[in-house]
Amino acid sequence: MNKRQIIIVLLLLIAMGLTAKISEGEIAPNFKSKTFEGSEIELHTFLKENDGLVLLDFWATWCAPCVEALPHLNELGKKHNIKVIAICEDGRRTLNKAKKYIEEKKFDFVNIIDEKNQIQTLFEVKAIPATFIIDAEGKILYTHTGYKKGDEVELDKHLTELLKKD
Fold first, then answer.
1. What fold characterizes domain 3-165?
2. Cis bond leading into 65, ω under 30°?
3. pLDDT for residue 61 is more than 90
């Protein structure tokens, strides 16, 4: 599929309401998963331990917009001094490619494996990339599906506004 076809499919999914169904104001579902390094992470515990905003993003190596968005998410995490959790939706066949990509780019975020799409299902994500801003109590403050150049500017504005409220 070329970029134009991918964009058309994404727009159709959005029009059909097949994007993330969990909305702003709801409590994020809790989950436990393994990081790329093999340690276990539980979302609600992670949120409490970090006592601030967390940027949660679903991505995969086969998703060009996802790969394009990741460096921006990493920079926004550094700029705003917030944690980023990248949830990898690659399956067994491409998981090593994802690990190698993250290692080569030296991203600072927590990388979680969701090879059976259980976390994606919990968050009702139907299209990726899907990004959520979550506060320390687990409340979803912002959601966004897809990525196009300039989306990082919008996300930066949201983060700036949310951090002013703290």
1. Glutaredoxin (3.40.30)
2. no
3. yes
